[in-house]
Every structure is written in C-alpha cells, then in structure tokens.
Amino acid sequence: MLKIHELLDEAKCYEAIRQIRWPQGVRCVHCQSNQCSKDGYHTNQPLRQRYRCQVCKRRFDDLSKTVLGGHHQAVTVWVLCLYFMGLNLSNRQIAQELELNKDDAQQMTTALRTEMYDRREQPCLSGTVECDEVYIVAGHKGHPAVVAAAGREGRSRRLKGQRGRGTLAQEKPPVLGIIQRTGQLVIALLPNVQQRTIQPLVQAIIQPGTTVMTDEYNIYGRLTQWGYSHQTVNHSQGEYARDEDGDGFHEIHTNTIEGVWSLLRSWLRPHRGISQEHLPFYLACFEFIHNIRRRGKALLPSLLQLIL
After folding, report:
1. What is the tally of structural domains in the chain?
2. Which run of H or E residues covers position 60?
3. Same domain (yes/no): 72, 169
C-alpha cells in the first residue's frame, strides 16, 4: 500500500528546512560560526547533510539540536505530522493517516507541542485589552499513578466536571485569556482563580496604563490598583456591551475573548479529553496558530520556523 509520506520529496523537505533554519547560510549549532563545510551525509538518511565547523571542529547536520533530530522517523513523516497538527487532527487520526503506531504518533505530537510551548514568546499587550477566564474539564488521563495517588479508581467513562467554577485540584482548571483587540492572544492554565494568582501574569503581559475590559468577577477588582484603566460589563444583569461615550458604538465589552473561548472549545473537542499534564501544550499550540492567523498549507512554514 502506498504511504502518504512517500509522496513527498524528501530532498525538497531538507532544502526547505535549510532555508528556514539558516536563511543567511549554514551556521554551527555549537558556536554559531559561519565557517562550516559539508562533511558527507547521515548514515541512515542519505539526504540529511552533515557539516563540520572550521572553528570548533565539531560536526552537526541539518536536524542537529532540533526536535526533529535524534529520531528514526523520516523527515517527511515529521513534516506531515506537523501539517496535520495544524489542521487539528487528533493523535489517533494522525497515526491512521501516517500508518504509525498510535504510541509513536503520540510521542511525536507531544514532542512538537512541547517545543511550541517552550519556544513561544510572551508579548506585551497595550491599547484595549480584554480578560476573561474559562473552565476546562481535565483530569489525569493516561497517568494511572496520579489517579492511584488520589485514592480513587480510574473512570470507565468520560470525566464529568462539577458545576460552576473549578480549580486544578478539582479537575476543572481555569484558563485565563488575555487578548489585545486586533492584536495578540495569551492564554495560561491556572491552579485557581485568585487575585494573587493572576496578578503576576497580568502585570507581565499587559503594559501599565492600558484599558482592560472584563466582566464583574471580583478577581479583576484590583486592576485599577495595579495601574490599569478598568472597564466592566455586568453579565449577571444581561449587559454584554455598552456605549460609554454616546457615539453609537458599543466599545465596552468582552466579546472578543469570549469568541476565542468558542474557538478553543471546538479546537479541543476532537482530542476526546486531555490530561492536566498535557493541557498547557495544547493551549500553547492553539495560541500560536490563533496569533499567526493562517490555516492549512499557509500555516506550515510558520510552524517549521517556530520549531527550527
């Protein structure tokens, strides 16, 4: 049977990786010198170029010190796996499309999502910013030792969350979302929703003096003391947008971040339950793809650039 990754040109994959990784020419991954010469090819992957640095005399290749290196899977498999992740296929779907063992596909996607999480940049938001929180049901799927330590048996059916707000310990962790209108999104998994929990995150991401829009939940009650202009909408009274200056434009709202939560729920749904241990990596992947604002094949170069 013909495998889908065999339809890709491996030589072109390596050429694209070189162009993305070294746009100004090959540099040593150890000392960053540009005095490098070709030094044969990888033993098991004949199109994977090796190099020798003329300064530190060490050897490296196209994939050295990247998440793609040190594995037995062909580079075409990795590129397709990354492409399918951009399409938001589940790990099981990716394994079926690439004809991989489901555990191999799980390891590959976990490695790629972890790399996205480690390499993401933290922006500084300004202008008009919206904050809100959402609660995601997330237990310890795939971690039987943690379940046993909690003194309960594993669930045979899906985890059902408690009503209302929750915490990490209650297996319904809060996710804080901060978005600049027409700008970047930042989302973070929190252990709980308390002012002392969100304060360092808010102050690290939002520039002082920024106008911050929230609902009337009391965890945002000290935003003014923290150096921000704070505007609220009262959802409990049926208020979702307000015209503050009488120009006919309802500028006081949190509809932007609430729209993100709708997208996030749809993004997580195909994965059929995610553990607390892996949830931050899925959130980082969603955050990056949302901020890039590209989809399908147009997204792939940005994903490769991030991990390389």
Report:
1. 2
2. strand 59-61
3. no
